[in-house]
């Protein structure tokens, strides 16, 4: 058996060169998805390109305008960042839900996105926070909104030689907060059967002036649900508005039956979680 | 061609040869003879292979061996200080927090990571921190008690 | 039995193997490496039911580094059984299950194996083996298997007892047990409740995958190192399946990382042995988790129909229970035990039990903690709960009213001796948990469970050191603290500190024959052998002291570790009155009094005396998502006598949590082709630490007259009540009776919504 | 001598001093079920033996046949 090469480039340019030169070279960040797929025979890379030694891929910077998350920053490091957790509690809680403590020590937010699982916990939270993906490639750098990054289960907009470098999120507007909830049968360790992220902005009277809702694990990719947001905007997030948002989320869902849940179950729960996440987000605005 | 890796394991410099796709778990167990780190699933779902990599709790089955280059690794074999057991090792013994014992090294490493970060965790914090460590024998009761007792 | 006061039994010393286990030094199945060792890998069937047309191993054999390849046709055909409980263990079936011949009968069944110099080469070689299959329709449950035109797994298998010209059937056997007139009983009842229940296939879920190393020398003598519950069984089964003389096979049991019944039969050992014989090199084989789920364990998926009749005052008058248990691909489910356990707690003047053993295209079931009983308990205890509700009786009072006690005839025949059922029920009733208030969306469930507890063959030796310390050895792998318990028994009998006793597990060449670690038998049966071996040492010590004092051995007394001279005995040298001697003082004179002192005992024990447990479970249910959480749990059990109470509590807690997993989330999910879709810890959802509260335990001690300390078994009873305790709690929280497990969120929400349809999101 | 409870509900008194003689007598009187009985565990005055031995039987000894049980 030919040994698979291990490469640890020190710069984005070197990583892009390696990935461009070799079809089978795969980006290796936390390894929590790629190594599992490799061991199960689902992926046969010719080289693992470990991006964790590239300085700009690791780390968190928050300016007065935006958050920049290096794509290879581990979930554990993100969870320990106090300012991030204060500004984006929903994103922090989504990151905190990725796997076990051990997995958090390895798994990265970029990997969670690039693995393109419709059930990825961070995706919904990134979508409602208007995150953008910074991509480096042979043709230079480009940026895409996170909701268009994943195109199908296991597929992204990344082209050969391209690499997700960072995720940027604009600082939340005043009186804005987010929340993320998922449903799993156990209390930990499961893949989401359904998930919902909500971000709301309330004016001084408690009227919702802006909202974003995203649902996960209920369609081929995480979905932004504008109809659910519309149901919230202009309301005081009363029961009627929340129920309308829940109904919109359920209506937008197009789930499948699988070992983790049924179509009917996922559809229902997507609505329940949307409603609950909206309440939690609103409750965080003080 | 094998890669030659220089690293630090349990406070001692160590070096080993590995393939590019070999896991750190395999290098520890098979090449370095450190079999205290156990393999329960190889997919990061059981916690039996928990180690500390630069002080961070990780599953050794999902770390590539060459990643250890220049890093610091702590395994169960490095927890006791000479002839003095770590407080967690003592409380596990005193609380009968093990039956078959296969999950024990992983639990002790994971619990050490918790207590290093948060010396007095609540029961809930302890249970959620250790949710990635499966035990099929004890129902967790005595394990949680042992960890909380070690935190006092 | 007269009350005996104990010095060591009932205390909680640190276990002797503990330090090795908390420091990582303890060596488990996969932790050994032998010089020159090869790595073995198994090729497995991708089909649940298929005829094997051909196997081409030529590419693998030609690959550099490959040292041996094995296919089923190379294994000897055998026709023997090893007696081991229900249906015995049919070695032919085991051999076929372990390595398919003409037919693959479950997805993941082994069809070939390769040994090579590295694991990578072995895997790559395995991938080149071309197996040509003719696919057949799989039968995946008892209904499919017993349908009139069901595909037949074994063309030569007829229902046991059927005439030789009967058509082949997937129904391996049918057993009946009855008493009285069940129809008249129902006619006499004021209330009759009938329900049909289903439980899924579930796995034992031990964290250590199966692992072994085998070598076979030039002289045909073989050694196997493996993680097993029964090294003698591995020796006999592996020798038979591999075609070796068991006299030439030695099995060294490693530390074992959990078993729960699943590490009794052999899967890898004979394969490793044959590969090693072919290659003349040691061969190590370790399963991955996927293989463990697909090709080992599990226990039966079941269908159980229960009908119980009761009088208005709660008196049970009749029970009719029909059981269908999946055996997996080869006959031998634990359905008979399930039937016997199902109504064992209760006095039924009339009953009719019928038990069907059905083969399906799943791995052959292995024993799993109280094999057969948890599912039966789930069905019967759910109906008993319904009766209590209908009659508006307290769930414990109803059970107390109908509980068996000493002298009552068990449904399986004999009269019960002293049993703790009523004591357990009283303890439950008096426990604060039973009356504690419930929070919103919470429900409380109660259920009881029963297991026989095993006996059979055990041996032990106790070797005295010249310093008065002692070593105790048995042939039972220690799966949960039995070495500590055995050391405590020796310390108790010899009056020496438990820290001065060294317990160990011997290999098959050095330990006396001992049946496996399982059936809750070790502390009882092997413990009894240990006690007798220690008594043997004590008797020898008396004889040595008698020699020193020049008196008759029968005149020497014994008092907590001291040998007491008879009145008037003198010291030889001084002529003074002889003083009592400690064990250490007599041991120091071994060489002068007749040489080393070794005590031994071996015995055949009857079954250990029935054990009963009662569990109280509080569930909190999210009515909008169907998700539930155990918020409080109490387990009460009669254990006869707790030797090391911490490990007794641990057994009860662990069994309860396995049962909770079975109730709430664990199940094999199969696709249409009969392939398991959740063969990993991610989607086979065993309970994790954050799913649970502390598990409170109450130890009840109704002494077992068959054991010198009163010990019964402990390990199996606690997995029996939780299935119904959870389902009854779910009934209490939601108003819905669930008859199918697991109580997973989608199933629960579907029923909640069907019961009270609510608009989405409302 | 013993009171023997056969599977089903039939009970018979068999004159046999020990368990092996009991089995011989049962084989003679009940040839159809003899094989089945030999595959079962035997309860002698309530104590269940997975493997029948050479136990003595007294006139009041009660014998039951119980399906064998496997343990986990």
Description of the molecule:
The complex is a heterotetramer of chains A (286), B (152), C (762) and D (72). Chain A is 33% helix and 25% strand. Chain A is α+β, with helices and mostly antiparallel strands and 286 residues long. Chain A folds into 3 domains: 5-50, Uridine Diphospho-n-acetylenolpyruvylglucosamine Reductase, domain 2 (2-Layer Sandwich), CATH 3.30.43.10; 56-169, 2-Layer Sandwich (Uridine Diphospho-n-acetylenolpyruvylglucosamine Reductase, domain 3), CATH 3.30.465.10; 193-283, Enolase-like, domain 1 (2-Layer Sandwich). In chain A, the strands form 4 sheets. A 5-stranded antiparallel beta sheet of chain A has the order 4-5-10-6-7. In chain A, 57% of the residues are buried. Chain B folds into 2 domains: 3-77, Roll (Ubiquitin-like (UB roll)), CATH 3.10.20; 87-150, DNA polymerase, domain 1. Chain B has helices at 24-31, 87-94, 104-117, 123-129, 141-150; strands at 3-9, 12-18, 50-53, 56-59, 72-74. A 5-stranded mixed beta sheet of chain B has the order 2-1-5-3-4, with helices on both faces. The model of chain B has no long low-confidence stretch (mean pLDDT 97). The relative contact order of chain B is 0.17. Chain B is globular, with a radius of gyration of 15 Å. Among the domains of chain C are: 32-136 and 204-295, Aldehyde Oxidoreductase, domain 3, CATH 3.90.1170.50; 455-605, Aldehyde oxidase/xanthine dehydrogenase, molybdopterin binding domain (Aldehyde Oxidoreductase, domain 4), CATH 3.30.365. Chain C is built from 21 helices and 28 strands. In chain C, a hairpin with a 6-residue loop joins strand 4 and strand 5. In chain C, helix 15 (482-494) packs parallel to helix 16 (522-549). Chain D has 72 residues and is α+β, with helices and mostly antiparallel strands. Chain D has one domain (2-66): Beta-grasp domain (Ubiquitin-like (UB roll), Roll), CATH 3.10.20.30. Chain D is built from 2 helices and 5 strands. The longest helix of chain D has 11 residues, at 19-29. The mean pLDDT of chain D is 89. Chains B and C meet through helix 2, helix 3, helix 4 and helix 5 of B and helix 1 and helix 19 of C.
